[in-house]
Design brief:
Blueprint: H1 23-31, H2 33-41, H3 53-70, E1 77-78, H4 85-94, E2 99-106, E3 112-121, E4 124-130, H5 144-157, E5 162-170, H6 182-185, E6 186-190, H7 192-214, H8 237-241, H9 257-265, H10 282-293, E7 297-298, H11 300-307, E8 314-322, E9 338-347, E10 353-359, H12 366-376, E11 383-385, H13 388-401, H14 406-414, E12 416-418, H15 420-425, E13 427-428, H16 438-445, H17 459-470, H18 479-509
Parallel strand pairs: 1-2, 4-5, 8-11, 11-12
Antiparallel strand pairs: 2-3, 3-4, 5-6, 7-13, 8-9, 9-10
Length: 510
Amino acid sequence: MVRERSSVQIRQVAPDDMPIFTKTDFIHFLRCSHSLWLEKHKPDVFPRKEFSDFLKKIAREGYEVEAYAQQLFPGGVSLPSNTSGVAKTKEAVVSGASVLFQAAVQTEDNLFARTDVLERDGDGWTLYEVKSSTSVKRDRQHNHILDACFQKVVFERSGYRIDRVCIIHVNGSYRRDEVIVPHDLLTITDVTEEVREKEGEVVLSIRAAQAVLESESINESVCPCFRKTKANHCDAFAYFNGEYSAGSVWELTRISEKKLNLLLDQSVIAIKDVPVDTDLNDRQMRQVRAAVEGRPVINRGAVRKLLDTYTFPLLFFDYETAMHAVPRIIGMRPWQQIPFQFSLHILHEDGRLQHKEYLGDTLNASRDVIVALCEAMPEEGSIVSWHASFEKQRNKEMAETYPAYANALLGMNDRMVDLEDVFKEAYTDTAFLGSTSIKKVLPVLCPDLSYRDLSVQDGTQAMEQWLALVEGGVPEADRQRVREDLLAYCKLDTYAMVQLYTKLARCAAG
């Protein structure tokens, strides 16, 4: 244990030719042991997915939060993130440093850890992990407790007595003031007891992971994800389990892992082969029927009933939003979605179609968005959105921030209907792959409309392009092109709804 400055006992680092095992490897193992083995033993065939724009943004947000977290510890020593980090950490500890940023250790059995903050506390240490989320995550996809526990285990095996483990995360109730005070922005949650309770489990998992990695071969015909729901599949699922086309049981909407395994135990892979006595909900039963009949299942009466609730003119509406872990605008909360753009297609009962749009020019665009929207939105007619709860929530939030516009915004919510509901309740096609996302529905019903030809193809790209535009990251020569790209993307969102509505209306009438 590291008890005194002059008697630091750091174990020797493993030889350079021996692979190390990191926290990233540990999390990879927990998600799929086979996938980790494939990445390490056959990197040339491992299906590495491109780091998405969304994940890149999350990483950047994390670095920003970490910078504020370091301000909670004045006088901390910043250590390099390269291969010299282990040696530099030892030197800093020996020299008597009380707080270290990015302290790194490596054990004799090749475990490597780098923690965000390590603070001396008497003869022991407190280990801090910094997260950009607004709470401590404990779910299957993101478990901060297991994450921190791995760090504790590796540091203790390297000679450090870790007395406390804490998660530093963003305070979800914080509202941006003119000057950001780190103690207000961030919350420190002590998770020591939770980590101790998980320590035995984590140690066993580390041993199991090391055993897997030491294996020269594994069964490459299947991986553990075969029995997990689609959202929990590893990147190498197709490599191990084969390519499954549209119509496999993993596409059943919201199927539980227990129910999925009951089907797999009966060797049922295709939705069309699901036994008739299987306990399914209504949407899942419609998926089975669509697969068996080989055509969409459409309840025309239900479609007609839903569309009959719409009142002309139909106002097809969509926001684009930006968000940050550390809010940029005074009065806004961490990760609050800030509308910076909207598109509005107005379909009149006689078939006339109008289009209105707005794109903010400054970071504090939401008030200007509201003003433009109030001018553009007709006072009568149903406001048609896709996944309308998103637009409704943005209106509620803006109504709180700008009370002068509360009546107008909440009044729009009262008129809002959700076109997605038709596909949840009355129109099922196996080609939707179990989803009702407009990105899945549109290519099936309107194959002539596509986002693929656009420069901006999803909401994250739109957010990043707009932030670059208003924060000076776009050269003057390119600004007009970027504006046009953003307007074209949002316009397609609402035009797509117009076309889908038209097809549904014809379907209901037919």
